[in-house]
Amino acid sequence: MTAQVKFPQFLPWTAIRIERGFWGERQSINREHTIPAVYHQSKITGRLDAWNPENAHHPVTHIFWDSDTAKWIEAVGYSVATHPNPEFERQVDQVVDWMEQVQLADGYANSHFIAVEPEKRWRNLRDQHELYCAGHLIEAAIVYAQATGKRKLLDILCRYADHIAAAFGRHEGQKRGYCGHPELELALMRLYDATGEKRYFELSKYFVDERGHEPHYFDQEALERGENPRDFWARSYHYCQAHEPIRDQTEVVGHSVRASYLYAGAAAIALESGDEELVKVLHHLWDDLTQRQMYITGGVGSAHTIEGFSFPFDLPNATAYSETCSSIALVYWGQRMFRLDPDSRYIDIMERALYNCILSGVSYDGTLFFQCNPLESYPNASPYDRLDRLSGTTYHRRLEWFDVSCCPPNLARFVASVGTYFYSTTQERVYVHLYNQNRATLSIGGGSIELEQETNYPWDGEVRIHLAAARPIRFALALRIPRWCREFHLKVNDQVVFSQPEHGYVVIEREWQNGDEVMLSLDMPIERIAAHPNIRQDVGCIALQRGPIIYCLEEADNGAGLPHVIIPRSSLLSYEFDVALFGGVGTIRGEAVRSEPVNWRSELYEPRSNVEFTQKPFTFKAIPYCFWANRQPGEMRVWIRDS
Amino acid sequence: MTAQVKFPQFLPWTAIRIERGFWGERQSINREHTIPAVYHQSKITGRLDAWNPENAHHPVTHIFWDSDTAKWIEAVGYSVATHPNPEFERQVDQVVDWMEQVQLADGYANSHFIAVEPEKRWRNLRDQHELYCAGHLIEAAIVYAQATGKRKLLDILCRYADHIAAAFGRHEGQKRGYCGHPELELALMRLYDATGEKRYFELSKYFVDERGHEPHYFDQEALERGENPRDFWARSYHYCQAHEPIRDQTEVVGHSVRASYLYAGAAAIALESGDEELVKVLHHLWDDLTQRQMYITGGVGSAHTIEGFSFPFDLPNATAYSETCSSIALVYWGQRMFRLDPDSRYIDIMERALYNCILSGVSYDGTLFFQCNPLESYPNASPYDRLDRLSGTTYHRRLEWFDVSCCPPNLARFVASVGTYFYSTTQERVYVHLYNQNRATLSIGGGSIELEQETNYPWDGEVRIHLAAARPIRFALALRIPRWCREFHLKVNDQVVFSQPEHGYVVIEREWQNGDEVMLSLDMPIERIAAHPNIRQDVGCIALQRGPIIYCLEEADNGAGLPHVIIPRSSLLSYEFDVALFGGVGTIRGEAVRSEPVNWRSELYEPRSNVEFTQKPFTFKAIPYCFWANRQPGEMRVWIRDS
Fold first, then answer.
1. Is residue A1's pLDDT more than 80?
2. How many residue contacts between A and B have a Cβ separation below 8 Å?
3. pLDDT higher than threshold 50 for residue B391
4. Distance (Å, rounded) from C-alpha A83 to C-alpha A94?
5. CA pair distance A430, A508, nearest whole angstrom
């Protein structure tokens, strides 16, 4: 047993089942459409056949295809555990059989560097993503084994992990390297949890600790390749969080997915090692990211040039990078931060990311994807600029797949695994983090209970929790009161309970009986949200939020010219559940004004005094941001001008 | 004599002398600081020594260094014509002597491709800028010969032009190519004007006409180099205006400097050939650029990715590319458009560019330069993003020089030649386009007159024009009434003249006598300017303009947090000449409000209702945009929130 038992444990994903409600529907679409779509694209692009021994010299592979395949396998694992699907398993098993045949005798297992460029193996850790791919395959192997009981993939990956452990480290004959794209650190900690093998923890810790030290490994390997280290295209190792050792870092920089994967891995190590220095650094970095560099949607990474962070409070809306994968990575990091520091603030961010930026990454029907999730969109205002317009993309639209297609399979596995984030337990406490219909079995106080949630969350704040237990058990039930909620009401078996939240959770400690029922009622008014005054892009604007959902205005409902729309402070806003839209979603309506010049001539610039502005009142309709771009193409804005 | 005599001629730059006033000071700083700084940088970077036969195998040259050297020589030419400077001439003559020695026997004259990569000569017209460099050298040679009477450089360049004429064209054995970076077209037309040799016109016309035809020359030469044409880094020939023949073009696209140089060259051809189809295309493209894609400063090109145009009405302020060179190129184009279509609208744009974007390209002291001229600046908001921050640039600052340093020498030659744009003549008319103290000698009505302007323009609108003539001459004096001027008063010899402008010029036709004096008084109120409603980046904002000058707010005068500043519609604005600032400049003061939340907590997003906004009134001070970034680093904004 690992040292982490003293920290809250998240519920094993096998112990929760979501059938209905908001996430029930998202998971059903994920099973029926997204996972098959990811399989289909992986198949037709050659990702799966890259492992086929008959195609072992297939020339068209890509250095990080294996990571996509891995995420698809992981998605299948989560999904079949609750919803058996022999066809999904057959598809995975075929690839696993191939992997077994293709894996080298020394344990090395990367489809590209086995088939296409064997001479380049481990020669460019900075750019080539080999360890990153290994990490994703390890996560897939763990989940697939736990879901199906089939160990073949896990055995392959344990051999690969052992090969990596032999190749990298501080001993004679080992390379003192680490991956340019962190991920393996996190995966090895999951492998340690799954197998109890301490060497995987040690290897992960080595990768985190070694990173960024001088003499710099990326310099050395570049010189060994006969390259000038200064010719690194990204100009600086900040890009891969290798500019300095993690313990010296004070600011979140570089590529946003790489950053959050690294910090999640480091948090997992801190959970095991109890390394207070590392915990302090991670706290600081978490605050830096979430208090200076995060979009209201939970998106992170504002700069396209490096797919990552630009500088504090620089959060451009139309050109936001805000990659789906980086919000997913933020959830992984937040989950581990909560364990280190059981406070709802990590879950608040997690909830913000999952209802907004992450879900924006997939179309309502589950088959189309965004890598980038801007908060504003106009014709031609593609984040890729003119260049994209030449290729015909005149609006931000989701696509079936991408050349670098990390986000679609990441979404598939994330949505399939969302139950993981609902509960945590310690020996005497059950944390309820998220609200949605679900049934979960939890070990607590030496016994076992079953919890069932009934709720229409996030469309309303009424949550009914039903307890089933073979015998009465004393424990504390800690219910998260989201930060957006200003008032809540709580009843246990119809008796009103008065309690103030501690660390964001209202705690009811008692001997719980079979049949007990908790009614939590979270006030969910519509809120106008203002942004930090240092975020220059949002000055003079508000965003609309209700519960965890961030809303946006779309041209489909409000016409074009959204920059001219003002929502006066005095205007009444009303919530309306639109049963006809996307299977039923909450919408916000209210009086707005379109403040626009009339009869503008052809010149670009005119004296203000020559221009007549009209103030046309109209009733606006805002829809959840996560469902934007599912109707005809058009403008979209999250931040709307305030009066 | 060329066919162009039927169109208005711009005054030869040798015929005007500016001693005082706004441009007198800019030219004096240009002579005393900018031209020497450009020489110094050209020297220390090796640009000049690239021609030294002793260094003929100097390994460090760059494919378009010659263009920088050429622009410096051209600047020296303009400057020594009115302000003799033997040292300047000695510096140029040294390089010219080297060029004469290094030029190949067949006439080829490019320092890089002679010394470093002779095997690559004319092998990659798309990228290698050889014809572009030739064009700039030709312009330099013409000006230097006219200024000094020294023909050596012109002879070198005529030989080179003849070599180019032999190498390129539609005859057997010739390459049907043209340059990826237009410029030579314009230069050859100047060479035709200077020499009367029709073959230079024919060659220029060939380059303009051939461009963009299929089978595409850039495809063919790429295949000949063994490259896939689709691997072109810029993805599309739109980047170099070679996506289709110019006559088929309906929209200004691609790299903004390349675009305007090409259109200027094409306009010069149309002046000679009378090609009505080409004139129609150029009119359309001019309107497209100036009515859909131009900043209020006369800057053009909003996208860094391609140093050029993104899409209509996309004019981001903080990330504007707005290259100094492209506004200069716009002036060249506008100058030729005026000749084709004598209307002040071209000169209005020219004036907008030269008082705002172009002058922003150089520091007040003449030694530091911007390539990009954003309309908004914040700490860290470098157009180059995070990457630049890592290299320490946290504010937009002018630099001494650049790796690609096209703008500094372009500024040097442009400022030295600004007198060129003051007057045009036909056989019976004198156009006065620009206002500044100057003395000019013009041929008109078979005689000659001398005009002298006295004015404090652009700080006030009073212009006194003094005529000296050996004998009375009948002609029309056409004085430009700038589009920003709503009311003007005109007197001839103290007699009020009532007249309405035609095509933007008020025309006084009479027999002019020695000693006649014209007093033009242009009303110059402070204007709040609104932007076209389709420019989403400027919605809800105004810019301040007085006369041709666009103003900006800087942190140095107004404190930080400029996005929170509102200039209410009701606030009175006053003009104040600040004698202490930059040798005396106009400023605008008025009441503004800083609308800002107080006591913001650490979170990024807060309910609007929790936030208290203060409305702090203060007196703002706006300075001319062209002088921004000359004091301590800080925020800057041109577009300010309107109430």
1. no
2. 162
3. no
4. 20
5. 10
- B493: phi > 0 → left, psi -120 to 50 → alpha, else beta; which? left
Annotated catalytic residue, options B133, B372, B406, B626? B406
Does B535 contact A608 at a Cβ distance shorter than 8 Å? Answer: no
Beta strands in B235-365 (DSSP E): none
Domain with CATH 2.60.40.1180 in chain A: 423-522
The beta strand positions in B481-572, using DSSP E, are 488-492, 495-496, 505-512, 517-522, 526-531, 541-546, 549-554, 565-567
Torsion of CA B450, B456, B457, B460, to 10 degrees: -130
What lies within 8 Å, CB to CB, of B292 at 6+ separation is A604, B312, B313
| CATH class for the region spanning A423-522 | mainly beta
Q: What rounded mean pLDDT belongs to chain B?
A: 94
B406 labelled catalytic: yes
Q: What is the pLDDT of residues B353-363, one digit of tens each?
A: 999 999 999 99
Query: How confident is the prediction for chain A on average, in pLDDT?
Result: 94
d(CA A588, CA A604): 35
Among A576, A471, A567, A462, which residue's Cα sits nearest to residue A519?
Answer: A462
What does the pLDDT average to over A604-628? 96
Interval B174-230: pLDDT, tens = 999 999 999 999 999 999 999 999 999 999 999 999 999 999 999 999 999 999 998
Per-residue pLDDT band at A61 (split at 50, 70, 90)? confident
Chain A: residue whose CA lies nearest to B308: A386
Q: In terms of residues, how long is chain B? A: 643
The CATH code that applies to domain B18-421 is: 1.50.10
Residues in chain B within 8 Å Cβ distance of A603: 291, 532
Contact flag B642-A305 (C-beta cutoff 8 Å): no
Determine, for residues B305 and A385 on separate chains, whether the beta-carbon distance falls below 8 Å: yes
What does the block give as tokens for A9?
């444990």
> In chain B, whose CA is at the least distance from the CA of A530?
B608
CA nearest B131: which of B304, B294, B265?
Answer: B265
CB–CB of B104/B114 below 8 Å?
yes
Say which of A305, A532, A563 has its CB closest to residue B385.
A305
Residues of B in contact with A569 (CB under 8 A): 608
